[in-house]
Amino acid sequence: MSFWKTKKLHEMTTGEWESICDGCGKCCLHKLEDEDTGDIFFTSVVCNLIDLKTCRCSRYSERTRLVPECLDLKQHDFAEFNWLPATCAYRLLSDGKELPGWHPLVSGSAGSVNEAGVSISSYAMKESQINDLEDHIIEWLD
User: Fold this and answer.
1) Is the Cβ–Cβ distance between 29 and 84 less than 8 Å?
2) Model pLDDT, residue 129
3) What is the spatial distance between Cα 78 and Cα 51, in angstroms, rounded to a whole number?
4) pTM of the full structure
5) Contact present, 23 and 56 (Cβ < 8 Å)
6) Contacts of 28 (CB under 8 A, 6+ apart)
7) Most CB atoms closer than 10 Å: which of 21, 40, 52, 74?
8) Mind giving me the DSSP string for 98-119?
9) Which residues of the chain have pLDDT under 50?
10) Own/partner pairs, 9-16, CB within 8 angstroms, 24+ separation
């Protein structure tokens, strides 16, 4: 049986944990929070460390040192994952849901995320290319 079906997130090895990431890049999009409501709004603007072809961090092991706002998901309470997109594998597993058919662990192909249109590669832009984050707020249909 697949490890993600038998283990809780906190029980996974580092390798298992890392393989849960589908490589969509959505968690690396800049977010804005409404101070009054606490609502989180995603933008189409991504950290400059992201490789937009692979949707992976180019400096992954150093990311939290180089970008202090970068979150290491493994260091957070899984109940806090509600800010992640509904398609995020960590959020899905935390919520007791199945991984989708396009997830690389299910499909057997890293390219399935792009083929399914789930990755940010087709629309994201680097933070160095924009002036105002509020001009780049996006909405996803869950």
Assistant:
1) no
2) 86
3) 26
4) 0.84
5) yes
6) 46, 47, 49, 50, 55, 57, 70, 120
7) 21
8) PPPTTSHHHHS-TTHHHHTT-S
9) none
10) 9/78, 9/90, 9/93, 9/94, 10/78
118 closest CA partner among 95, 92, 136: 92
Q: Which two tokens stand for residue 11?
A: 């029980």
Other beta carbons within 10 angstroms of residue 5's beta carbon come to 9
For residue 44, what are the CA distances in angstroms to 26, 112, 119, 124?
9, 21, 12, 5
Nearest to 23 by CA among 95, 107, 81, 133: 107
Give me 36's structure tokens: 């009054």
- Which residues face 46 on adjacent strands? 29, 126
Strands (E), 1-142: 29-33, 40-46, 50-51, 56-57, 125-126
Q: What are phi and psi of 137, to 5 degrees?
A: -70, 135
